[in-house]
Write a structure and sequence with these properties.
- The protein is mainly beta.
- The protein has a domain of 106 residues: Immunoglobulins (Immunoglobulin-like, Sandwich).
- The protein has a five-stranded mixed beta sheet with strand order 2-8-7-4-5, with no helix packed on it.
- Strand 4 and strand 5 form a beta hairpin.
- It is elongated.
- 15% of the residues are buried.
Amino acid sequence: MTKPTCTLLVAAAVACAAIVTACKKAEAPAPEPTPAPVVVQPTAVPAPAVTITDLSLGTSVGADKKVQTSTDTFKPKDTIFASVSTDGSAPSAVIAVKWTFGEGQVVKEDSRTIAPTGPAATEFSIQKPSGWPKGNYKVETTIDGKPGPSKTFTVK
């Protein structure tokens, strides 16, 4: 074989290889694996550290800050006590009370910061030396801003 023939054969072989490669179907890239779904475990909402267990009204409280005789009817010149019983422990919790008359007229708002380590009682009171107007009243409680029990009472 002559040199031009050999060169021609090599060029033809290269051209055939290029044609075969160009005509070859491109392989699709392998699909990416689908990640496993993330399972989120629901977290339990912790119970409040301190809860209000009772609200009692009366005209006097004992040394334990609990109402001695519970009532929901008062005289105009009575001092009205509210004893808020709690259970639980926390380094700090805020008990608030709101006293209202009639259709929501605020008589008094008050709060106490407590640091209970178990059952406890906290006292609140309202008094008016000139006498409370006769009618319907309500006292509402909250603990750390969350609603607690409420009680309605009457002054006759």
